[in-house]
Amino acid sequence: MGSYDIFKTVNENGKWTKPFNLGYPINTTSSETSFILTTDTKNAYVASDRPGGLGERDIYKIDMSHYRILQKDPTVDVNATHGFSILKGTVVSSEGAAALAAELNIFDESGQKVGNTFSNVEAGGDYFITLPGNKKYTVKIDLKDYKPIEETFLLATSKDGTTYTQARNFILYKK
Prior knowledge:
Layout: E1 7-8, E2 11-12, E3 15-16, E4 20-21, E5 32-37, E6 43-48, E7 58-63, E8 84-93, E9 103-107, E10 113-118, E11 126-132, E12 135-141, E13 149-155, E14 164-167, E15 170-172
Parallel strand pairs: 8-14, 8-15
Antiparallel strand pairs: 1-4, 2-3, 5-6, 6-7, 8-11, 9-10, 9-12, 12-13
Protein backbone atom coordinates (compact mmCIF):
# COMPACT_ATOMS: atom_id res chain seq x y z
CA MET A 1 0.00 0.00 0.00
CA GLY A 2 2.88 2.34 0.83
CA SER A 3 6.65 2.20 0.80
CA TYR A 4 6.78 0.09 3.99
CA ASP A 5 3.88 -2.08 5.20
CA ILE A 6 3.16 -4.59 7.97
CA PHE A 7 2.63 -8.21 6.83
CA LYS A 8 1.71 -11.42 8.64
CA THR A 9 3.00 -14.95 8.16
CA VAL A 10 2.62 -18.04 10.37
CA ASN A 11 5.06 -20.90 10.87
CA GLU A 12 3.03 -24.08 10.28
CA ASN A 13 4.85 -27.40 10.62
CA GLY A 14 8.24 -25.74 10.07
CA LYS A 15 7.19 -23.78 6.98
CA TRP A 16 6.16 -20.14 6.73
CA THR A 17 2.80 -19.38 5.15
CA LYS A 18 2.59 -16.90 2.32
CA PRO A 19 2.91 -13.40 3.85
CA PHE A 20 -0.06 -11.12 3.35
CA ASN A 21 -0.50 -7.41 3.83
CA LEU A 22 -2.58 -6.63 6.93
CA GLY A 23 -4.32 -3.76 5.15
CA TYR A 24 -5.98 -0.72 6.66
CA PRO A 25 -6.09 0.50 9.44
CA ILE A 26 -2.63 -0.95 10.08
CA ASN A 27 -1.16 0.05 6.72
CA THR A 28 -1.72 3.23 4.73
CA THR A 29 -0.20 4.73 1.60
CA SER A 30 2.52 6.09 3.90
CA SER A 31 5.33 4.05 5.55
CA GLU A 32 4.41 1.86 8.54
CA THR A 33 6.97 0.13 10.78
CA SER A 34 7.30 -1.21 14.31
CA PHE A 35 3.91 -2.87 14.76
CA ILE A 36 3.15 -3.64 18.44
CA LEU A 37 0.02 -5.54 19.52
CA THR A 38 -1.20 -5.12 23.11
CA THR A 39 -1.37 -8.32 25.16
CA ASP A 40 -5.18 -8.21 25.22
CA THR A 41 -5.15 -7.79 21.38
CA LYS A 42 -7.66 -4.92 21.66
CA ASN A 43 -5.25 -2.27 20.37
CA ALA A 44 -2.06 -2.01 18.37
CA TYR A 45 0.51 0.70 17.87
CA VAL A 46 2.37 1.44 14.67
CA ALA A 47 4.99 4.02 13.72
CA SER A 48 4.13 5.92 10.54
CA ASP A 49 5.01 9.03 8.57
CA ARG A 50 1.35 9.72 7.67
CA PRO A 51 0.43 13.26 6.66
CA GLY A 52 -0.73 15.45 9.54
CA GLY A 53 1.67 13.99 12.08
CA LEU A 54 3.76 15.97 14.55
CA GLY A 55 7.21 14.77 13.51
CA GLU A 56 9.06 12.64 11.00
CA ARG A 57 7.41 9.48 12.30
CA ASP A 58 4.55 9.36 14.81
CA ILE A 59 2.97 6.55 16.82
CA TYR A 60 -0.66 5.73 16.00
CA LYS A 61 -3.08 3.68 18.11
CA ILE A 62 -5.28 1.25 16.17
CA ASP A 63 -8.56 -0.19 17.48
CA MET A 64 -8.30 -3.92 16.74
CA SER A 65 -11.85 -4.85 17.83
CA HIS A 66 -12.85 -5.91 14.30
CA TYR A 67 -9.44 -7.14 13.21
CA ARG A 68 -8.37 -10.42 14.81
CA ILE A 69 -4.62 -10.53 14.27
CA LEU A 70 -4.18 -13.88 16.03
CA GLN A 71 -6.68 -15.72 13.82
CA LYS A 72 -5.32 -17.71 10.91
CA ASP A 73 -6.90 -15.08 8.62
CA PRO A 74 -6.94 -11.80 10.58
CA THR A 75 -8.71 -9.99 7.74
CA VAL A 76 -11.96 -11.69 8.76
CA ASP A 77 -14.19 -9.79 11.18
CA VAL A 78 -15.40 -12.30 13.76
CA ASN A 79 -18.67 -10.35 14.02
CA ALA A 80 -19.42 -10.46 10.29
CA THR A 81 -20.02 -13.06 7.62
CA HIS A 82 -17.72 -11.42 5.06
CA GLY A 83 -14.00 -10.72 5.04
CA PHE A 84 -12.61 -7.26 4.59
CA SER A 85 -11.43 -5.89 1.27
CA ILE A 86 -9.45 -2.80 0.34
CA LEU A 87 -10.82 -0.13 -1.96
CA LYS A 88 -8.11 2.16 -3.27
CA GLY A 89 -7.32 4.40 -6.20
CA THR A 90 -6.80 8.02 -7.13
CA VAL A 91 -8.85 11.18 -7.44
CA VAL A 92 -7.61 13.51 -10.17
CA SER A 93 -8.78 16.47 -12.23
CA SER A 94 -9.66 15.98 -15.88
CA GLU A 95 -7.37 18.94 -16.58
CA GLY A 96 -3.87 17.49 -16.74
CA ALA A 97 -4.65 14.66 -14.31
CA ALA A 98 -3.69 16.87 -11.36
CA ALA A 99 -4.11 15.17 -7.98
CA LEU A 100 -7.06 16.42 -5.95
CA ALA A 101 -7.72 16.49 -2.21
CA ALA A 102 -11.29 15.22 -1.97
CA GLU A 103 -13.54 13.49 0.55
CA LEU A 104 -14.97 10.17 -0.65
CA ASN A 105 -18.20 9.22 1.13
CA ILE A 106 -19.18 5.54 0.97
CA PHE A 107 -22.76 4.28 1.25
CA ASP A 108 -24.16 0.73 1.44
CA GLU A 109 -27.11 -0.60 -0.61
CA SER A 110 -29.63 0.84 1.86
CA GLY A 111 -28.16 4.32 1.39
CA GLN A 112 -26.60 4.42 4.85
CA LYS A 113 -23.19 6.08 5.05
CA VAL A 114 -20.71 3.39 6.14
CA GLY A 115 -17.45 5.28 5.84
CA ASN A 116 -15.38 8.02 4.32
CA THR A 117 -11.78 8.64 3.35
CA PHE A 118 -9.74 11.43 1.80
CA SER A 119 -7.48 11.49 -1.24
CA ASN A 120 -3.95 12.72 -0.58
CA VAL A 121 -2.49 15.34 -2.95
CA GLU A 122 1.08 14.63 -1.77
CA ALA A 123 0.56 10.96 -2.74
CA GLY A 124 -0.72 11.77 -6.25
CA GLY A 125 -4.40 11.79 -5.26
CA ASP A 126 -4.26 8.31 -3.68
CA TYR A 127 -6.97 7.13 -1.29
CA PHE A 128 -7.86 3.83 0.35
CA ILE A 129 -10.35 2.37 2.79
CA THR A 130 -11.08 -1.10 4.13
CA LEU A 131 -14.69 -2.29 3.96
CA PRO A 132 -16.55 -5.59 4.41
CA GLY A 133 -16.39 -7.44 1.09
CA ASN A 134 -19.04 -9.07 -1.09
CA LYS A 135 -21.22 -5.98 -0.82
CA LYS A 136 -22.36 -3.21 -3.15
CA TYR A 137 -21.19 0.29 -2.33
CA THR A 138 -21.77 3.75 -3.74
CA VAL A 139 -18.93 6.28 -3.63
CA LYS A 140 -19.95 9.94 -3.75
CA ILE A 141 -17.52 12.81 -4.24
CA ASP A 142 -18.72 16.41 -4.09
CA LEU A 143 -15.77 18.81 -4.39
CA LYS A 144 -16.12 22.57 -4.75
CA ASP A 145 -15.73 23.80 -8.37
CA TYR A 146 -16.14 20.23 -9.72
CA LYS A 147 -19.16 18.28 -10.90
CA PRO A 148 -20.31 15.77 -8.25
CA ILE A 149 -19.61 12.14 -9.04
CA GLU A 150 -21.39 8.99 -7.87
CA GLU A 151 -20.44 5.40 -8.70
CA THR A 152 -21.94 2.10 -7.51
CA PHE A 153 -20.06 -1.21 -7.68
CA LEU A 154 -19.59 -4.60 -6.00
CA LEU A 155 -16.54 -4.86 -3.74
CA ALA A 156 -15.51 -8.53 -3.85
CA THR A 157 -13.45 -10.57 -1.36
CA SER A 158 -10.56 -12.96 -1.82
CA LYS A 159 -11.18 -16.70 -1.93
CA ASP A 160 -7.62 -17.66 -0.95
CA GLY A 161 -7.33 -15.92 2.45
CA THR A 162 -5.34 -12.95 1.20
CA THR A 163 -6.61 -9.39 1.35
CA TYR A 164 -8.59 -8.53 -1.79
CA THR A 165 -7.82 -5.11 -3.27
CA GLN A 166 -9.98 -3.32 -5.82
CA ALA A 167 -8.77 -0.17 -7.58
CA ARG A 168 -11.26 2.53 -8.58
CA ASN A 169 -9.96 5.79 -10.00
CA PHE A 170 -12.10 8.91 -10.17
CA ILE A 171 -11.70 11.76 -12.66
CA LEU A 172 -13.46 14.97 -11.68
CA TYR A 173 -14.55 17.55 -14.24
CA LYS A 174 -14.77 21.31 -13.63
CA LYS A 175 -18.29 22.78 -13.38
